[in-house]
Amino acid sequence: xxxxxxxxxxxxxxxxxxxxxxxxxxxxxxxxxxxxxxxxxxxxxxxxxxxxxxxxxxxxxxxxxxxxxxxxxxxxxxxxxxxxxxxxxxxxxxxxxxxxxxxxxxxxxxxxxxxxxxxxxxxxxxxxxxxxxxxxxxxxxxxxxxxxxxxxxxxxxxxxxxxxxxxxxxxxxxxxxxxxxxxxxxxxxxxx
Amino acid sequence: xxxxxxxxxxxxxxxxxxxxxxxxxxxxxxxxxxxxxxxxxxxxxxxxxxxxxxxxxxxxxxxxxxxxxxxxxxxxxxxxxxxxxxxxxxxxxxxxxxxxxxxxxxxxxxxxxxxxxxxxxxxxxxxxxxxxxxxxxxxxxxxxxxxxxxxxxxxxxxxxxxxxxxxxxxxxxxxxxxxxxxxxxxxxxxxx
DNA sequence: AGCTATTAATAAGG
DNA sequence: CCTTATTAATAGCT
Lengths: 192, 192
Fold this sequence. Notes:
The structure is a homodimer. Chain A has helices at about 15-40, 65-85, 85-95, 115-140, 150-190, and strands at about 40-50, 55-60. Chain A is mostly helical. The first copy, chain A, has a two-stranded antiparallel ribbon. In chain A, a hairpin with a 5-residue loop joins strand 1 (about 40-50) and strand 2 (about 55-60). Residues about 65-115 of chain A have low confidence and may be disordered. Chains A and B meet through helix 1, strand 1, strand 2, helix 2 and helix 3 of A and helix 1, strand 1, strand 2, helix 2 and helix 3 of B. The first copy, chain A, binds a DNA duplex through helix 1.
């Protein structure tokens, strides 16, 4: 729609690209908002403009979104599990094969990108820690991935130590219970 | 655009809602693809249809989105580690339902408050998980805080199982090493 | 799922 | 940023 039909191909001029982007973005946002309201669909939109930072838009009442994100993440995980490939390949696959359907809700006021970046960094850090801890737990449970014999021995020592600690704790608890039972018995004897 | 001007408000009739969704979705997707090509913008879109069908679209070349997706996959990985739950069915469903196209859409400037909120929620979630995991590790190492005798017993069983796994893994590694040494010996004998 | 009458988005040009 | 000629999307029907 316009004075002439526009060929859909990359606009070479940067200025023109940005200008068109600005206009069309507005249009798509409007459409997305309408869709959101008309059809009650939850939406989230991720995008990163070549000249800008990554941004995520989430529909306001998109409670279902988190579940979508979760399922999405599960999808990628399953893909990885199934093929024993790593995240990157999985991501490529998603990029290449899936389409992004999207809706967005426009949310007016801009927050600053720096804050967002901070969150992203913190998130990444936490996730790294979590992954590390998970790995420890996983190796404990299933040591078949551990290749280093010395590490195995160390783990074994730890396990034995833990087991000993656990057993003495169990004994301690058992003893305490015995004491309680005897006290109870004693009281009963007094009552009779 | 249509025979009459449509008021933007939730369509009460389910059928009508689904029908409109289907049509408008197509339109938005087209627009997004155009925007992608015209302006070189990378996008990913998540949405749930009125019938609750989740779909993911990701634009090609959306490098900026990879980190987000990566973290999503990590999240699910962690979740699964922790809870040992599987949602393969769900994943398959998502996969089958996603159509193959590419759309992208872009947004330059505005970040929004919802984005931050999403991150905050995710952060809190991660922190909770980290705390939980740390607690598990701590209890293993030092069971003196564990009060429940049954839990102690469960932990003991787990430890024993892990220990067995560890020992068989150790044996396996040792055996492999022996084999390697013998092969090496054999080669040396041949050489001399 | 198709089909037009209409409305809405927007290309080009101030 | 505006304006407006044109094209594109789609509302109401079938």
